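From the methods appendix. Each design record in this collection lists the tokenized structure first, followed by the designed amino acid sequence. Records were kept in a plain field format so they could be parsed without special tools. The example shown here is representative of the layout used throughout.

RECORD:
FOLD TOKENS (920 positions):
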């Protein structure tokens, strides 16, 4: 089986990552605007390379159309001529005119300079790269939209809604959904000619109903949130192949696919332009052109309806008034990646519109897309969607599930977890692939069984799914869909069933402890800082430690955050009252559980894709919503610390809530059987050991890394040996906790011997953390940060230091490294030390060391030197120090003076603001 992880696909993905990194650094972080002319130029350049990949120079003379006429002209470097010619062709086929302006020489030159020419060429491996490029170039608008969604009284414009929800689908997901919606509908004889690109993804069918077969001629497919047309491009290839196999000419096949088979809609008019460009490129690759508008692509916002209807876009029920409208018809196939925007980010107007038209879907617009997509199916039609897994589990969607499961059959469910979208930051998108259908016969009995694939613990989702589909004996477990949500209806013989019975019957955690949600400031940019951004005299009286989420970290995690709580949080409370006038001054509705602030206890991560993760909550801290707290009623805190971090409790938490968002109510439900006093004491002792080991591991990186007399190589060996030993000891203690908890449950009659064999430890997250900390490049970066900090450190503060790159004293000796240590560092970094510090105008040293932004270096090109500084040194001492004869002092002072003026206008600035100011 041909794998999607081949070199070509990896190269495209790598290139997109490079493209994103460069664009974010040079445009998004700098706040620069990217013009529509530049956007169009970028899209057309990617289109050119897609065409060039398929047309070798040797056959130019044999081509009859655009490819021959225009690509050959680029041998003279006439990019403007090519882009304008292709622009004219898109104008003819795009149904929305004047969407993007024509590119000019300046915009073309600007775009081509973003990345190297070989990177542009690599994007030509796939036509879908055009859409992914459009997504990346929209990141600046997405950043602005994110700020708009975080405002208390948010009013989202359509442009902000588009930018916030713009996230395009990976190619393997698109092909998977096309395969499992289209292939089962195709006549068997026609199906023999389907490309392996699609057949390799075909799942075994679980429904037994006789299907209504379609021919390529009468099959109609729509993507109601088509974006840049990823699904349409894949469906184009699928359907064109069927038409050609049936004997249609190339021109006839192209016409039927574009004007009879494919339909798309999106509220972003620019995405309709991108879709048109992609389909045009597909046609040109077949030596065909598109001479008339693709009127099957629509932008529903241009229909003269109310703003509320425009915000709902394709799912607005206003389209049901016209059965001839593209969004009022029925389709054989509906495939889509709907926009995700949760309740907290919805504007008031959008919330009201959703509640009015989709009373079962008020928490996320993607739920409305699921309901509407199923409604758009013709009898026997199939729906394929990638969406949030919470739709299948959360109680708030129970009515939606009841409605859908009473009317439709869901054939297959693939639980992907996080990491499906490689260009999305963070871990918050917990994805599931759904394949559903409308029964062909009215009142047909509905299957309640679906095929279930669980890929949540697999890093490479598509490789794992390919392997499973290759082995019939490892295919899918059958689950019974639950209308109430939560867990599937497990077999009574399974350990999962007995664990759920335990959760139901044993005393809950809420009977022996208080679980409390933390502080929501409503404006973290204003009220939350890293502690080094705050003057020391204000730490304590005004700014206090603020414990935020830490993902899968258990036992201990370093905290660098502080929150502005001077005068008992009066400024935060006032901001809450002003932001939410309908609270009538009752700030406690948002500033929750204030009586528990500063108390010692335990805390857990709200967002965590690996397992339940509980840490010590130190006294004197305020806890955040992302790290809500647990307070024992009877002093059994250490027992709970061990118990909640056991593998069995992680399993229970996942059964209660299989999403990545662990709610306070979920934690309260966790069972706590009456363990013996001896067991509790032993678990408490083990918890203290685990905490001490994790603290020691974290301390390895906060102490002096190069020990006197050992040199760098000796210190590195010692450090690794210490870390390995500590992790082994931690693993041993965690294993003892797991054994004690499991056998205690068994002795109390909740589990049986079979369960003890089935339930084991899960060290995946621990192994990842060890690998993360052992990363050699990160180790070298940490060594350099420590060395830079030593140069800057004084008794009272941190100073600003200038270090020449070329001088009588070797560069590495100024940092305290001997020749052997410098060679080792350069080997680990893959570059000379001078280049490492001078590779960009401003270097965030801490970030390179996988830490928080604290220590920075600035390259002084005229003086051939670097300047070392930190936020604290910038606030306390603006006089750079170095050799008395150092020429860089003047250049450094000019940079600092300019940065100081920018920061002065900013007012209350942070290290991130400093990074931007130094880069201007």
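DESIGN:
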């Amino acid at each position: 089986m041909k794998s999607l992880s081949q070199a070509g696909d990896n190269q495209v993905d790598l290139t997109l990552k490079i493209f994103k990194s460069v664009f974010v650094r040079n445009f998004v972080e700098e706040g620069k605007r990217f013009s529509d002319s530049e956007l169009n130029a970028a899209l057309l350049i990617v289109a050119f390379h897609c065409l060039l990949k398929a047309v070798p120079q040797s056959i130019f003379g044999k081509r009859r159309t655009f490819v021959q006429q225009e690509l050959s002209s680029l041998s003279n470097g006439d990019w403007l001529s090519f882009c304008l010619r292709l622009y004219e062709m898109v104008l003819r086929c795009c149904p929305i005119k004047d969407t993007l302006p024509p590119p000019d020489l300046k915009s073309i030159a600007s775009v081509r300079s973003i990345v190297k020419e070989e990177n542009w060429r690599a994007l030509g491996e796939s036509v879908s790269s055009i859409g992914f490029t459009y997504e990346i170039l929209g990141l600046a608008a997405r950043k602005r939209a994110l700020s708009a969604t975080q405002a208390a009284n948010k009013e989202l414009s359509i442009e902000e809604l588009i930018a916030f929800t713009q996230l395009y689908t990976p190619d393997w997901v698109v092909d998977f959904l096309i395969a499992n919606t289209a292939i089962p509908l195709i006549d068997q004889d026609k199906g023999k000619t389907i490309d392996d690109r699609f057949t390799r993804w075909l799942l075994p069918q679980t429904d037994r109903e006789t299907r209504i077969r379609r021919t390529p001629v009468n099959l109609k497919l729509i993507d109601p949130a088509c974006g840049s047309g990823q699904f349409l491009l894949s469906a184009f290839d699928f359907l064109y192949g069927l038409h050609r196999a049936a004997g249609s000419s190339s021109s006839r096949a192209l016409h039927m696919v574009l004007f009879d088979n494919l339909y798309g809609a999106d509220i972003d008019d620019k995405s309709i332009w991108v879709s048109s460009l992609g389909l045009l490129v597909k046609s040109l690759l077949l030596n065909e052109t598109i001479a008339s508008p693709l009127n099957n692509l629509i932008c529903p916002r241009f229909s003269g309806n109310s703003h509320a209807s425009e915000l709902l876009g394709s799912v607005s029920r206003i389209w049901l008034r016209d059965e001839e409208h593209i969004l009022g018809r029925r389709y054989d196939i509906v495939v889509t990646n709907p926009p995700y925007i949760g309740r907290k980010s919805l504007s008031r107007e959008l919330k009201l519109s959703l509640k009015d038209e989709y009373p079962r879907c008020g928490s996320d617009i993607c739920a409305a897309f699921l309901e509407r997509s199923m409604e758009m199916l013709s009898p026997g039609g199939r729906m394929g969607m990638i969406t949030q897994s919470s739709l299948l589990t959360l109680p708030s969607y129970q009515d939606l599930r009841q409605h859908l499961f009473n009317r439709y059959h869901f054939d297959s469910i693939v639980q992907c977890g996080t990491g499906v979208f490689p260009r999305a930051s963070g871990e918050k998108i917990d994805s599931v692939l759904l394949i559903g259908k409308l029964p062909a016969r009215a009142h047909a009995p509905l299957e309640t069984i679906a095929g279930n694939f669980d890929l949540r613990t697999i890093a490479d989702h598509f490789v794992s799914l390919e392997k499973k589909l290759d082995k019939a004996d490892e295919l899918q477990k059958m689950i019974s869909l639950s209308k109430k949500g939560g867990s599937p209806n497990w077999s009574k013989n399974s350990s999962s069933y007995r664990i759920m019975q335990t959760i139901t019957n044993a005393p809950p955690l809420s009977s022996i402890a208080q679980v409390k949600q933390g502080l929501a400031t409503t404006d973290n940019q204003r009220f939350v800082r890293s502690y080094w951004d705050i003057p020391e005299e204000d730490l304590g009286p005004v700014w206090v430690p603020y414990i935020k989420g830490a993902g899968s970290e258990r036992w201990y995690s370093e905290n660098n955050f502080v929150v502005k709580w001077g005068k008992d949080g009066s400024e935060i409370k006032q901001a809450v009252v002003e932001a939410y006038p309908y609270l009538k001054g009752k700030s406690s509705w948002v500033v929750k559980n204030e009586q528990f602030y500063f108390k010692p206890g335990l805390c857990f991560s709200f967002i965590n894709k690996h397992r339940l993760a509980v840490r010590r909550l130190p006294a004197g801290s305020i806890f955040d919503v992302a790290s809500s707290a647990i307070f024992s009623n009877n002093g059994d805190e250490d027992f709970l610390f061990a118990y909640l971090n056991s593998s069995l409790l992680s399993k229970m938490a996942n059964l209660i809530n299989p999403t990545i968002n662990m709610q306070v109510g979920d934690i309260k439900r966790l069972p706590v059987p009456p363990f013996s006093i001896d067991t509790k004491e032993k678990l408490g002792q083990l918890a203290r050991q685990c905490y001490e080991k994790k603290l020691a591991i974290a301390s390895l990186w906060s102490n002096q890394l190069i020990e006197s007399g050992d040199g760098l190589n000796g210190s590195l060996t010692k450090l690794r040996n210490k870390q390995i030993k500590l992790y082994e000891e931690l693993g041993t203690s965690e294993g003892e906790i797991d054994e004690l908890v499991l056998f205690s449950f068994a002795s109390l009659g909740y589990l049986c011997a079979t369960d003890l064999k089935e339930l084991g430890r899960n060290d995946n997250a621990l192994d990842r953390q060890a690998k993360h900390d052992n990363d050699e490049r990160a180790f070298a970066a940490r060594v350099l940060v420590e060395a830079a900090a030593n140069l800057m450190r004084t008794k009272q503060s941190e100073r600003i230091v200038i270090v020449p790159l070329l001088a009588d004293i070797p560069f590495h000796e100024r940092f305290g490294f001997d020749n052997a240590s410098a060679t080792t560092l350069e080997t680990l970094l893959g570059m000379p030390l001078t280049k490492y510090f001078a590779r960009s105008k401003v270097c965030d040293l801490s970030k390179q060391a996988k830490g928080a932004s604290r220590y920075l270096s600035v390259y002084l090109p005229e003086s051939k030197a670097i300047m070392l500084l930190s936020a604290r040194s910038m606030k306390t001492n603006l006089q750079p120090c170095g050799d008395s004869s150092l020429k860089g002092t003047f250049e450094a002072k000019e940079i600092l003076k300019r940065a100081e003026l920018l920061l002065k206008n900013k007012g209350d600035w942070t290290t991130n603001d400093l990074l931007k100011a130094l880069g201007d």
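APPENDIX NOTE: DSSP finds 38 helices and 21 strands in the chain.
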